[in-house]
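Explain this record to help learners:
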Amino acid sequence: MRAVVFDAHGGPEVLRLAEMPDPEPGPGEAVVRVGACGVNWLDVILRRGETPGKPALPHIPGSEVAGEVVALGAGVSGVQVGDRVAVAPYLFCGTCEYCLRGQESLCLRGDILGLMSQGGYAEYVRVPARSVVPLPSNLSFEDGAALGLSALTAYHMLITRARLSPGETVLVLAAGSGVGSAAIQIARLAGARVIATAGSPEKLARARELGAEAVIDHRQQDIAQEVRRLTGKRGVDVVFEHVGQATWDQSVAALARGGRLVTCGSLTGPDGRVNIWTLFAKELSLIGSYGGSRGELRTVLELASRGALRPVIHAVHPLEEAAAAHRTVEAREQFGKLVLRP
């Protein structure tokens, strides 16, 4: 099969199109013909060698897969050859204490598709059969690939972890990202007011189109000061944080009394300070969020199927243009998702 691989860590130029062996399903596994695969920041830092774990090389990245089941291993039930599916990217063992509680992304033996395992920048990918979920018939493979990690992450952050309620106000950072563009929509579906940040007038306009009531240009304006102005000095109930060190101080400062900061990433660095007095005196909550479950992915896909959640796709590239897609993501030039199509 054709696949995009890297043999060494480095810039986008290390990505190359190669012929790799077709995957064969083992017991409990499925092989999916990849219809589309999303490009994520995880793919970028994996290629750079910045993830805590390093996969064996050559490696095929890609965590966000939608496609068609073409082969099944022994002992698989509930899935058939020919099924259109999306792959839940947070792989789990199914037997540890966290899996048994339904917290699949906290699995003691967990992985992310394309992190240590071979991923979806390919014509075919082998996955645990329990990790596939049906792709609604009115969603394209590109739609499924644009939702499978980013929208799942946003849903888990806002609904499961932050427990967003109707009438609350949410600050969504980096609205032009895949996760940010999904978060605006999910927050609005929950009945919240959204303030969004982005770094250009074009992205700010797109954020408004998705449902942001107010916007902040993070290149020109102080985020915390603008939040205070927009909320009558009150602050926001929830900050949707995934940028990291560069915005951490302002994110905490933007919180109202009793506010919650929920974070899934540290794009600009892992270090963030908190004034302990402020933390307890304002009764703030700092919440980590990691991935999401199969059930949450089914919910996200159902919302998209009903037209309540729109996949935001910046561009679709063939496999051989994977390096160009990575350059776009690293330059933060996109609004929404980059998708590869074999």
The CA atoms of residues 32 and 174 lie 32 Å apart. The chain has a mean pLDDT of 96.
